[in-house]
Amino acid sequence: MTTNSTIRAENGPRSTRWALILMAATLGLTGCAADSPSAADLAVLADLDPETSQINLPLEAYAMDAGEQEVVGHANALTMQSCMARSGLPYPRAALMPEESPPFPDRRYGIWSMADATANGFDGPMNATSDAVDAEESALGEGWYSATEVCFRNETMLPMMAPDIAEETVVSKGMNESYGALQRSGVLRDVRAAWVDCMTENGTDVDASTQVLMPDMANPDKRTKEAAIVGATCMDEVGATEQLAGYESRAQLDYIEQHHDELVQYRAVVDKTLEGAREITASFG
């Protein structure tokens, strides 16, 4: 069995997540674990950050996290800036520094973090700097957009190796498998039923068209920050995110055992890509 220390030595980043591996082994939740773990067992495996609204799953450590994606995105923006400059055109996005873009709230099961619900409701977080760049680019006209398409085709862009990219990788395959297993599980059914009961008791309608735990958003009059707060409150009361994230973590730990070598190789490519991104950024001073 791959141990906590072995994985940390191979990968390095996000060592707190690898503590999940050790806990899983200690609790007997990997491999031949019981098919129906208790809510408490699942909650132990959940690695949550309510303040930043992030749900950390074990497989994500083998791909680029939000900060690493920003590093690569910034390097690609600098490459685009250089290309556009040859045509006498600006590329405003290159001025965005990675630290200016906080991670987007993780709502894979619904709006669960009170910090997210109270600040944003159903909307995404505001980023004044990014919004200003969007407006600046929109004002540059169709000719500018055509020039960006030419640069995208002609320049070599570093790959964005996020956990959930559309193309299948050893990471995205495991992410999809764990989420699919969750959707078919009795855990999601039971958690959602408890959450719906809580929502009903608080006079808030739910979205019956989806398996995620979201209030009814079809009616604009119901798409309120108050509804988002009630939804997050009920998520907390029934321990929804802890159980759902714990279930996926448990499935992913098994997947990591089965695909260990491939995952380590994939992370090595991620690290090499990040090294290239930092070299590009350094070359621009």
Automatic annotation (TrEMBL):
Domain of life: Bacteria
Keywords: Signal
Position of the signal peptide: 1-33
Record's protein name: Secreted protein
Gene source species: Clavibacter michiganensis
